[in-house]
Structures are given as structure tokens and as C-alpha cells.
Known about the structure:
116 residues, alpha+beta, 2 domains, 2 helices, 28% strand
Amino acid sequence: xxxxxxxxxxxxxxxxxxxxxxxxxxxxxxxxxxxxxxxxxxxxxxxxxxxxxxxxxxxxxxxxxxxxxxxxxxxxxxxxxxxxxxxxxxxxxxxxxxxxxxxxxxxxxxxxxxxx
Length: 116
């Protein structure tokens, strides 16, 4: 695989805070997405970055004051499902990925995102 950088792109996140420093609005935009020319509203974000040198994960988890618990349940469910998929794609560890998906199913049933 060639590791030569051919182009660069930006992902922008804009967070509006109230006087207490709590997020009350958020917008995002990816410059590489031709269908998204302007900032798009969102209610929550999870960002994890793996540091190349320290091997530590830095993270930013933000949600706005209007994010409802049922929305957070769905957001976490979908995020966990995506993490299990990503883990499998990156490692090919089918057994552990299936165990992760089993927990995601359990989470989905407990939060009633998946009907019991």
C-alpha cells in the first residue's frame, strides 16, 4: 500500500456553549462530502483518537442539552454496533467481534431499541 498523501480533507465541528460551558448546539461538516456544503446540526458526538506515540486514546464525548435519553440509547447502540464492525474489519477476530455484537444486541433489547 502506498502511503503517499494525495490530498487532505477537514472535518469541522462547531460547538455552541451556554454561559455554564454546557453544549447547547452542535454542527459538523466534512469538506470531502460534496452533498454537504454547509454545517449540519447534530445532537451528540463521540470522537476517539489513538495517539501514535503514547499509544493512549484521547476522547471527546459531547451532547447537547436537547439530547433525550431515548436518543442517547439509540446513539450508543448504533455506536457500539459500529465499533464491533470496525473491530472485526481491523482484526478479523470473528469470535470476539461476535461476542461484542452479542452485547450490542443485549443493550438494544434492554433499551428497547430492539423489541424484546
